Amino acid sequence: QVQLVESGGGLVQAGGSLRLSCVVSGRTMSAYTMGWFRQAPGKEREFVATIAWNSGSTYYADSVKGRFTISRDNAKNTVYLQMNSLKPEDTSLYYCATAYHHYTQSLAVIPERYEYWGQGTQVTVSS
C-alpha cells in the first residue's frame, strides 16, 4: 500500500516561486508514474505534470510548461514540483498521485489512471 504526503504550499505573490514536495511511502517500487494535479473551487481536477519514477522522463501541461519543473529523488522517495513565475490562476489545491503503470502521455494526464493520492497542499497566488 502506498501513501503520499504533500507539503510546501503557501501564499505567494504573483511572479514568486514555491516548491512542492511529495513523500511516497510503502510499495514505492510499484510507483512507475508520479503525477501532480490541481483543483480549484468550481473546477475539475486538472493535470499539471508527470514523471516516470525510474527514468525521470517528464511531461507538462501547456499551462505550466516553462514555469514548473517536476523532479524526483529516488533515494528519498520524494517527488518535487518547482513552481516559478506563479500566476493568480495557479491558485489551487495541488495533489500528487501515483500509478502502477508507465503511461503514454495521452493516458498520464487522466486522473482516473492514478491509484493513490495525497491529501493536497494549498497554493495561493495573490495579484
- The total of beta strands comes to 11
The gross shape turns out to be globular
**Helix percent band:** under 10%
Main β sheet profile? 7 strands, mixed
Content of β-strand: over 45%
Average pLDDT taken over every residue: 93
Element-level helix/strand string: EEEEEEEEEHEE
What's the alpha carbon Rg, rounded to whole Å?
13 Å
Please give the alpha-carbon distance between the first and last residues.
40 Å
Based on secondary structure, the structural category is mainly beta
Low-pLDDT windows of residues:
none
Count of discrete alpha- or pi-helical segments spanning 4 or more residues: 1
Question: Which key features would you list for this structure?
Answer:
7-stranded mixed beta sheet, 50% strand, 1 helix, mainly beta, 127 residues
Write structural notes for this entry:
There is one protein chain. This protein is mainly β and about 130 residues long. Helix content is about 5%, strand content about 50%. The protein has one helix and eleven strands, in the order βββββββββαββ. The protein has one helix at about 105-110; strands spanning about 1-5, 10-15, 20-25, 35-40, 45-50, 60, 70-75, 80-85, 90-100, 115, 120-125. The strands form two sheets. Strands 2, 4, 5, 6, 9, 10 and 11 form a seven-stranded mixed β-sheet that branches. A hairpin with a 5-residue loop joins strand 5 (about 45-50) and strand 6. The longest helix has 4 residues, at about 105-110. The N and C termini lie far apart (about 40 Å). The mean pLDDT is about 95.
